[in-house]
Amino acid sequence: MLTITETAAQVINTLISDSQMPEGAGLRIAPQQDRSEMLELSVAPAPAEQDTVVESAGATVFLEPHAEEALRNQVLDVQPAMQGEEDQYRFAVTPQPSV
Q1: d(CA 65, CA 52)
Q2: Which residues contact 45 (CB under 8 A, 6 or more apart)?
Q3: SS3 for 9?
Q4: CA-to-CA distance for 63 and 53, rounded, in angstroms?
Q5: First and final CA of the chain: distance in angstroms?
Q6: Of 8, 18, 72, 78, which has the fewest Cβ atoms less than 10 A away?
Q7: 41, 52 contact by CB (below 8 A)
Q8: pTM of the prediction?
Q9: CA nearest 90: which of 31, 35, 33, 41?
Q10: In the chain, how long is the greatest CA-to-CA distance?
Q11: Are 47 and 53 in contact (CB under 8 A)?
């Protein structure tokens, strides 16, 4: 299952709040329509019918089935964007540490 860091949860909650979404909204991760090997993130008011819902540190992420499979045993984190980039944050996915 995808793990969400506390930093990522804070940024997700800020994105939801800034988007003025209803309670229960979350960050949705799904394959890009024109490039299925790439994932896209968007703020969504609710999960799609077959989405897996992951909640951590007060943040909610909706995973489309193919995204859920691709992100299994991964960690979703956020890193500050590089200087000059338009966005303030960049989401990053890394493997979960081995136990």
Answers
A1: 7
A2: 21, 22, 24, 25
A3: helix
A4: 6
A5: 15
A6: 18
A7: no
A8: 0.87
A9: 41
A10: 39
A11: yes
Structural tokens at position 97: 């540490």
> What confidence tens digit (pLDDT) does each residue in 26-72 have?
999 999 888 767 899 999 999 999 999 999 989 999 999 999 999 99
Cβ-defined contacts of 16-23 (< 8 Å, 24+): 16/43, 16/59, 16/60, 19/43, 21/45
Element (H, E) at 7: helix 6-18
d(CA 58, CA 72): 20
Asked if residues 14 and 26 have their Cβ atoms less than 8 Å apart, the reply is: no
Cα dihedral across residues 66, 34, 80, 13: positive or negative: negative
Task: Return the pLDDT at 96.
Answer: 86
Distances 30 to 15, 37, 86 between C-alpha atoms, Å = 17, 10, 22
DSSP-assigned states of every residue in 11-60: HHHHHHHHTTPPTT-EEEEEE-SS-TTSEEEEEESS--TTPEEEEETTEE
